[in-house]
Amino acid sequence: MRVRSAALTATAGAALLLLAAPAAPAAPAAPDDARLVAESVTVDPVGRIAADGSVTLSGTYRCTGGSGPVFVSSTVSQSDPSVRYGVGGTRAVCDGLEHRWVNTGTPDTVVLKPGAARVEATVMELRPMGIVPLPSFHARQAQDVTLTAS
User: Fold this and answer.
1) What positions does the domain DUF6299 occupy (predicted)?
2) Using one digit for the tens of pLDDT, what is the confidence trace for 94-132?
3) What is the model's pLDDT at position 37?
4) Is 149 exposed, middle or buried (0-12, 13-18, 19+ CB in 10 A)?
C-alpha cells in the first residue's frame, strides 16, 4: 500500500509541475517560399499528332525529395475514356523548382485523330524498398486537351 501511495504522490507532483511550467514558445512559422513549394504536374491544353501517328504531350511539373529515380509519365484517351494509351516518359528532377516535361510516343494499337482527348500526367518515383523499388506518386493531373495535326 505504501508503494502505491508514494507512486501516486510522485505522479500528482509531476503533473502539478508540468501545469505550472511556462508554455514552450511555438515553433517559428515556415518561410513563405517553403509553403509555396508544392508538388504538382500540369498538362498543356494542346497536344500534337505527327503524320507518322506519334503523339507529343507536354506541361510542367514540380517535385521535392526524390530518393529514387523520378519520371513524368502521360496517357491519352479519346473515344473511350476507360481506355488509355501510354505516351512516353521523361526523367524528372525533384529540386522544388518548376520544370517542363515533353513526352512523345506512338500508341501501338490505336490511331488517334485530331480533336478532343483526355490526358493524364503523373509524377512517379521508384523508391528503394529492400530489394525491389516500389512506386511512390508525387503528383497527378488529368485534363481535357485538343490534339492538333503537326
Assistant:
1) 38-149
2) 999 999 999 999 987 777 899 999 999 999 999 988 889
3) 59
4) exposed
pLDDT tens column, 34-91: 444 589 999 999 999 999 999 999 999 999 987 889 999 999 999 888 889 999 899 9
Number of structural domains in the chain:
2
CA dist 150 and 18 (Å) reads: 71
d(CA 150, CA 138): 31
Given a contact cutoff of 8 angstroms between Cβ atoms, the answer to whether 109 and 77 are in contact is no
Enclosing domain of residue 136:
39-149
112, three cell numbers: 488517334
Q: Which long-range contacts (CB under 8 A, 24 or more apart) does 137-142 make?
A: 138/39, 138/41, 138/63, 138/66, 138/70, 138/94, 139/39, 139/40, 139/41, 139/61, 139/62, 139/63, 140/41, 141/40, 141/41, 141/42, 141/43, 141/59, 142/43, 142/118
Asked if 100 and 27 sit in the same domain, the reply is: no
148 pLDDT above the threshold of 90: yes
d(CA 17, CA 42): 54
* Residue listed under C-alpha cell 512523345: 104
